[in-house]
Specification:
The protein is of the alpha+beta class. The chain has one domain (9-93): Hypothetical Cytosolic Protein, Chain: A. 34% of the residues lie in helices and 22% in strands. The chain contains 3 helices and 5 strands, in the order βββββααα. It has a 3-stranded antiparallel sheet with strand order 4-3-5. It has a two-stranded antiparallel ribbon with strand order 1-2. The chain binds zinc ion (ZN). Zinc ion binds at residues 12, 14-15, 17, 49-51, 54.
């Protein structure tokens, strides 16, 4: 039996849409910080977003809480602020359109 190479599917944490992992932006908790894992290489639990608009929605506290829970990260206000900055920096670099 010939099997196709598996293409992992992941779900966007914001809107719930499913897509191939390679089309999504990975977010992970690395060394105690929630980071955007652009190259999808950091170890650990991952969460995914499907689009720029979904990434921008991570700025909302409600979605942030969902993300932190899914990454088993404590709900700290400082971490939330740092992550917001990370999102802003990422969007300014304009890589994700
Ligand atoms: Zn989405």
């Amino acid at each position: 039996m010939v099997r196709n190479k598996p293409y992992p599917i992941r779900t966007c944490i914001v809107c719930g849409q499913k897509d191939y992992k390679s089309n999504l932006l990975r977010i992970t908790c690395y060394k105690g910080k929630i980071k955007l894992d652009e190259k999808q290489r950091l170890p650990g639990r991952g969460a995914y977003v499907c689009s720029k608009s979904c990434l921008q929605k991570l700025n909302s506290l409600r979605i942030w809480k969902k993300l932190a829970r899914s990454l088993r990260h404590p709900l700290e206000e400082t971490a939330y602020k740092e992550f917001k900055k990370e999102i802003e920096g990422f969007l300014e670099r304009g890589k994700y359109v």
